[in-house]
Design brief:
about 210 residues, 5-stranded mixed barrel, two-stranded antiparallel ribbon, alpha/beta
């Protein structure tokens, strides 16, 4: 099986494909090892979708994965854990209003939440310890306790990232199965960059190849 893993930055791709050989794929550079090609596509859903869509048009893959460092909503996961999405939520896609934020569902323009293949998620969860649950995609990282509470009330997420919904959109356009995995560096809430544990999050990402084997 060939797998495309799209990350935001090169350090994340290097953690996923540790020891892989460098490859040039159209306008992108990545690492390839044991059937996994890990490519840094940029930060946010738009850049991630552009990367994934381009590579899926140029090359054949059996599975598409969005992976990278993320933040956890503490009830389900802790720093250093690997979180596996059972559904992906494009949490800040919608409209502002005097009554508050209106998700895309309320606008009649689609669904914010996409449930992933239950059997595929279960197979991956059986191969390595993970915390499974919703992963929200946001273009603006949550940095206040108030916003975190809003997202918990709306979606009860396990973790937060910035690219999942974009990579998912590309995978769906090509009819391919999709997963999202996040190595946890910090808990969602008041932004405190000094409290992030990036080495622990990157170490969690190194477990992805075993989970996908």
């Amino acid at each position: 099986m060939t797998t495309l893993v799209v990350t935001a930055v090169a350090t994340e791709a290097a953690a996923v494909a540790t020891g892989g050989r460098a490859v040039r794929l159209g306008p992108y550079e990545g690492l390839r090892k044991n059937g996994i090609t890990a490519v840094p596509g940029g930060v946010g859903p738009a850049q991630a979708a552009a990367c994934a869509g381009t590579l899926l048009a140029l090359h054949r893959y059996d599975l598409v994965v969005s992976a990278g460092i993320g933040a956890a909503y503490g009830r389900r996961a802790a720093v250093g854990d690997l979180v596996l999405a059972d559904r992906v939520v494009h949490a800040d896609l919608g409209a502002d209003s005097p009554e508050g934020f209106l998700p895309i569902d309320a606008l009649g323009l689609g669904a914010a939440t996409t449930w992933l293949d239950e059997a595929l998620v279960a197979r991956v969860a059986a191969r390595t310890p993970v915390a499974a649950g919703p992963i929200v995609t946001v273009s603006t990282v949550t940095g206040t306790a108030e916003r975190a509470k809003e997202l918990v009330a709306a979606y009860d997420p396990a973790a937060e990232g910035m690219e999942g919904a974009g990579v998912l959109a590309a995978a769906r356009a090509h009819g391919l199965p999709f997963l999202e995995l996040r190595g946890i560096s910090n808990l969602v809430g008041r932004r405190d960059r000094s409290a992030w544990d990036l080495p622990a999050a990157l170490a969690a990402l190194t477990r992805i190849p075993a989970a996908l084997a």
